[in-house]
Amino acid sequence: MRKSLMRMTLRQLQVFNEVCDLRSYSRAAQEMSLTQPAVSLQIRQLEELVGQPLFDYVGKKLYLTEAAEALQRASRDIFGRLENLDMQLADLQGSLQGQLKLAVESSAKYFVPHLFAAFKRQHPEVQLQLTVVNRAQVIRRLADNRDDLTVMSMVPQDMGLDFLPFLNNPIVAVATPDHPLSQQSPLRLQDLEPYTLLVREPGSGTRMACEEYFKEKRVHFNQTLEVASAEAQRECVSAGLGVALLTRHAVSLELSSGLLKELAVDELPLYRSWCVVQAKARQQSPVALAFQAFIRAERAQISALATRFDGLPKGLPANT
Fold first, then answer.
1. Is residue 153 within 8 Å of 272, Cβ to Cβ?
2. Contact 198/227 with Cβ under 8 angstroms?
3. Structural domains in the chain, sorted by start
4. Which of 4, 81, 217, 265 is deepest in the core (most CB within 10 A)?
5. pTM to 2 decimals?
6. What is the DSSP letter of 284?
7. Are the C-beta atoms of residues 234 and 166 closer than 8 Å to each other?
8. What is the DSSP secondary structure assignment for residue 51, as one 8-state letter?
9. Sign of the CA dihedral 170, 176, 180, 185?
10. What confidence tens digit (pLDDT) does each residue in 234-277 have?
11. Tens digit of pLDDT per residue, the chain (320 long)?
12. Strand pairing of 149-152 and 61-64?
């Protein structure tokens, strides 16, 4: 090993990782309560130890060099091992402590905080770092080994992943109560075709699941309106701009209050399973292992928790 690498400090790597994440010296300085010259000095010293430049500017954008990408992978591994060590030492003292780094697909963000809260009641000293992204970003984070665990549906089969299905994710069609389709029952998917369909951005897992299902059912929408989030879809539906297919968890309040109505489509809900996902090669922390064990052991509690997000008056089935 190069002797120069042994002179790296954890503080230098912390500053380096912040610049990598924010792609900005000034924003990294602000985030870490440092001056920009102090950040520049740390990076310059790190480049001297590595023997190569770490960042390139193209126009006003900051890009990582190949050396920086290699150093970023190594530094994440170093800090991950230190976090695991901290958790293992706490475990030896008889308490589970540490942070769970959890990335979730955006449509899971309504349920997952409540799932973690149930876990935290058993392990009160565990903290959560929650990152909400779309499916395409989830896959990039899995490839980069960024998180302890991931919650997603439609798990890629070609990435060497272990996954544990734990909850159905029902996707339903919704419209305003005064929409013409809200007055009809039963409906077929084809009955929705004449109306504008509100869809998520490319990269959304819900959009991908729906598009695959439409292809299977030979349903085609000529009129679509793309919006960037489930929240925007809800607002557009409420404004009468069209119908949308959303996870029932995302519209539970609107359904239960009567602001929106679940359409009585025979081919729906479309069910996909939420899964806890990890890279097979990743060494899991005690907190991540405990969270997975909680999910395996508490299926009944998780199912009961999910009923709070079905958007239905208790005792009534869907599409009534």
1. yes
2. yes
3. 3-72 (1.10.10.10), 78-165+274-309 (3.40.190.10), 168-272 (3.40.190.10)
4. 265
5. 0.63
6. P
7. no
8. T
9. positive
10. 899 999 899 999 988 888 888 888 899 999 999 888 888 889 99
11. 778 888 889 999 999 999 998 888 988 998 888 899 999 999 999 999 989 899 988 877 888 999 999 999 888 888 888 877 776 776 665 567 788 889 998 888 888 888 999 899 888 888 888 998 888 888 888 888 888 899 988 888 888 788 888 888 889 999 999 999 998 888 999 999 999 999 888 878 888 888 999 999 999 998 999 888 888 888 999 998 999 999 888 888 888 888 999 999 998 888 888 899 988 877 788 888 889 999 988 888 888 877 776 655 444 444 43
12. unpaired
What residues contact residue 183 under an 8 Å CB cut-off, 6+ apart?
A: none
15/12 Cα distance (integer angstroms): 5
For CA atoms 134, 138, 144, 146, the dihedral sign is positive
Quote the crossing angle between the two packed helices 205-217 and 135-143, to the nearest 10°.
120
- Mapped onto helix, strand or coil, the DSSP state of residue 219 is coil
Tokens representing 64 are 């990582």
Token readout for 173 is 């069609």
Buried b (16+ CB within 10 A) or exposed e, 70-97: ebbeebbeeebeebbeebeebbeeeebb
Q: How many CB atoms are located within 10 Å of the residue 224 CB?
A: 10
Q: Which helix (H) or strand (E) segment is 127 a member of?
A: strand 126-133
DSSP 264: -
